[in-house]
Amino acid sequence: MKKLWAAASFILGLSLPNLAQAAEVTITTTLNAYSGNGAYLAFYLTDANGKYSKTLWVAGGKSKYYKHLQGWARGSGLKSTEYDGFTGASVTAGEQLTVKVNIDDALIDAGYLIRVDSAVEDQRDHRVDAEVPLTRQGAGTAVAGRGYVKTISYTL
Fold it and tell me: InterPro entries of this UniProt entry (predicted)?
């Protein structure tokens, strides 16, 4: 029995260093001034080809409106398992939203993008309102959005 525990401990010790490391990434988004209700935002990762990879955060409390976040909705399949635990309140005009997420270190500098889709009730939806390459060099650099998002930036 002692030999079995010793072997198991040895194997566990060898495999622990190979576990994926995650970086804490802080994403800061500022919205433009606009008239109307709060914005729904979906933050997600895509690979270099634009293929959906992972939900990072969804701002907006009513899931029935998530279908308006088109790129994210298509990629995530709107499965609640894709966003459970990654949601918060909608964001109003001119407001800033800061979220902290864990992203696998292997995805940094590997061609991945942080994308944001946005929607406001009774107004235009913006698929890929903003996107920023996930690189160490780009950390801290604000990128302009195309719709409700004024700027997006992240730090590692």
Answer: DUF2271
